[in-house]
Design goal:
Blueprint lengths: L1 H30 L3 H13 L1 H12 L3 H27 L8 H20 L3 E2 L1 H22 L5 H5 L4 H32 L4 H26 L3 H24 L4 E2 L6 H20 L4 H20 L4
Antiparallel strand pairs: 1-2
Helix pairs in contact: 1-2, 1-8, 1-9, 2-10, 3-4, 3-9, 3-10, 4-9, 4-10, 4-11, 4-12, 5-10, 5-11, 6-10, 8-9, 9-10, 11-12
């Protein structure tokens, strides 16, 4: 039964991702917004909902350190696994936008701010508000840079708000629901195979909350939307540190043991720096994918090493 649920959940993920991509294209065309901006805002925020829900729940249960671990793990998953697979499988599917020139500060600053805030051992309410304001600033930056007026006469014939919003909502619901049931069924399968429960919890939370980014990016790669792929990852990582941590911090302090999470922080930092380097060099190639997957493998081996010494 678990295998059937897993298959159906993955099917929901893929179909939902197709709906999101299709309606996002229509919205982009309607308002003259680039695929990068749609990926970095609408899709990124939507696919970050699992991280947000998990982190807020952890904060409400006085387990704020789980929220921090979730964000760090998801960041490494997004860059190492998602982009690594995209570049390795699809080859050169890079964006047309000069991401390094326009967006590199926005990729680096949230992680640097996180290090500064975590130095005293906790991310509090004031820190959370700063993170949320930073997300708002990024949205305004993208809006001023990319938005342009579209002709109502041209768009009215093929664009209908209610229809697009319905399919977009359905797409996000399928992606979120698919991710939820994928995690549950995969956990049951893992238990049946006798895998250590601690390993299941740690790896599946990070992997499960990154499934929306992975599926949406794979579908976008099939359609050749390189800007949407990288925009989704850049926006998702930005949302992880700003919206996810910011929202969770409003419900309670997020304790950060730098010594305990040192390697996870290092991997997330390395993933961030590698993403900036790849955009600066425009290395959206298969060798770059191998390098990103190697980083992900290193994190995975280290994590498993805690449970299988």
């Amino acid at each position: 039964m678990e295998y059937l649920i897993f298959t159906l959940a993955m099917g929901g993920l893929i179909y939902g991702a197709n709906l999101i991509i299709g309606q996002s294209e229509r919205i982009a065309l309607r308002f003259g917004v680039s695929h990068f901006v749609i990926g970095a805002t609408l899709i990124a925020l939507g696919t970050s909902l699992p991280e947000m829900a998990t982190s807020i729940s952890a904060s409400l249960q006085n387990r704020g350190e789980m929220a921090v671990a979730n964000v760090l793990g998801s960041t490494t998953f997004n860059v190492g696994l998602v982009l690594g697979l995209i570049f390795f499988i699809g080859g050169n599917v890079g964006p047309t936008r000069d991401i390094f020139k326009r967006d590199s500060p926005w990729m680096l600053f949230p992680f640097i701010l996180f290090l500064i805030m975590a130095y005293d051992g906790a991310i509090g309410v004031a820190d959370g508000i700063i993170f949320l304001v930073l997300m708002g600033a990024y949205v305004v930056f993208l809006g001023k840079e990319e938005l342009c007026a579209a002709s109502e006469e041209v768009c009215a014939s093929f664009f209908r708000w209610k229809i697009s919003l319905f399919w977009l909502f359905l797409g996000f619901s399928l992606v979120m629901g698919g991710a939820h049931f994928t995690i549950q069924s995969a956990t049951q399968i893992a238990h049946g195979l006798g895998v250590t429960p601690w390993v299941i919890s740690l790896l599946l939370i990070a992997f499960g909350t990154s499934l929306p980014e992975l599926i949406v990016s794979l579908v976008a790669a099939k359609k050749g939307h390189g800007d949407m792929i990288v925009g989704n990852i850049v926006g998702s990582n930005f949302a992880n540190f700003t919206v996810v941590l910011g929202s969770a911090a409003l419900f309670g302090p997020l304790h950060v043991n730098i010594g305990l999470y040192g390697f996870d922080i290092l991997c997330a930092g390395a993933a961030t720096v590698m993403l900036v380097f790849l955009t600066a060099s425009r290395l959206y190639t298969r060798p770059a994918g191998v390098a990103l997957l190697a980083l992900f493998a290193l994190m995975l081996i280290n994590t498993l090493g805690h449970f299988f010494p």
